[in-house]
Amino acid sequence: MAEEPRSDCLFCKIVAGEVPAQVVRETETTLAFRDINPQAPTHVLVIPKVHHPDGAALAAAAPEIAADVLRETGEVAAQEKIAGSGYRVILNTGTGAGQTVFHAHAHVLGGRGLEWPPG
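Now predict its structure.
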């Protein structure tokens, strides 16, 4: 079951329209918008409209919405014209992995070479 929107969550505020974002796609269950600190020429965040603290919690509680998020990463890549050249999808979990907003979200990165291993 989804958590209620949190008043202290930036992404819940974006979903509610209380904080502006440059939205690139929206579905019934997801919202995709440009990252304000892009790490690649294309850097879009895809979030569920319901609050879950991270991707693992989302997948455990609402696997169908987790699938929607993942499906939308591919749609964003196609729309942004990076699907053919390659792109990376990242779901950071916890502060040690660089998660700074504790609302599940997938980063879609592309438009430049993305070396491995990352960071």
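Strands lie at 23-26, 30-34, 42-48, 87-90, 106-110.
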